[in-house]
Amino acid sequence: MLEKTVVTVNSTGRQSASFVRVASAVGWRVRAQVRSREGLVADELAGLPNVEIVEGSLEEEGIVEYLFKDIQVAFINTTPWGDEVAMGCALADAAKRAGVEHYIYSSMPDHSSLPYPLFRMELQDDGSFVWQAPFHPDDPLPWLDAEHDVGPAVLQVSKSGPEAWVGQRITLAFERLTPRQLCARFSRGVSRPVVYRHGPIEISVSTPAGYREHLEVLEETLGRQRAPYFGPDLEYPKEARSIWEGYRGIEEYAREVFPVEESANGMTWMDEREEDPTATTLAETPVDTPGTRTPSGARTPSRHPEGDEYFLGSC
């Protein structure tokens, strides 16, 4: 494989870190920007072969220009630190000035790592899980395990080169499931009942600038108006699966990854769980309506390695 030099920003986020890992594994040189070298993910990336860690804010003078020096491929996923739109424009302009051959931008926000996400499984007192979101129970949604699948997919796009993809949008989603279907598969994975509750997005902590408004727009357009997630002209998951066949589905994630993440967050349910024969045979998951009393059980997100106030812009 032809060796390339690539750059990523906000590299401890799930999307960027995923690409750093696979690019390093195939022998590409990686320049990875991080806000801080402290933390588990930053330590991991710094220990990978061919990876240069660039520490500092994208708003610092000189960092952006340096990032794109002698770079062939850029994978960019911005976060809500500061003015995200202005930073996105500055990165694109700097890449153009530097003559970057292939510029790949991910517009997917991270809704899975925050204390107020669109996708959060809440453990209940009876051992079951509840997912509350504003989506209609029967409207299909795109699903992607960013940490597992973004890196390999972006690698394949990078290998194809800009000639194959210039000006195109890629719908990177590997499953198309309604909330009912999602909960049924998640239930099989964790061997516990999983209930979908059709209700508003609950925000209980401070949010970065613009993010609350972003969630409100999603709640209105995808929830109340029931608009398709990607719009009528973008089909999925066929395109994503043609790029990367080794994706991890939601049931596999629930069975193999979710318990590990929960354990890291201090939860112990996975050590006490028993096989639930009904969980593996669910065709559909019950929908809980707003206002239904459900025993509470909070999942406390683990501290992000870059600080308590860090909000991921990549999954």
UniProtKB/TrEMBL annotation:
Residues 3-112 form the NmrA-like domain. It holds the Pfam family NmrA. SUPFAM superfamilies: NAD(P)-binding Rossmann-fold domains. InterPro entries: NAD(P)-bd_dom_sf, NmrA-like, NmrA-like_oxidored. Residues 273-315 are annotated as: Disordered. It comes from the Eukaryota. One of its GO terms (cellular component) is nucleus. The keyword Protease does not apply. Keywords: NADP. Belongs to the NmrA-type oxidoreductase family. This is NmrA-like domain-containing protein. It comes from Cryomyces minteri.
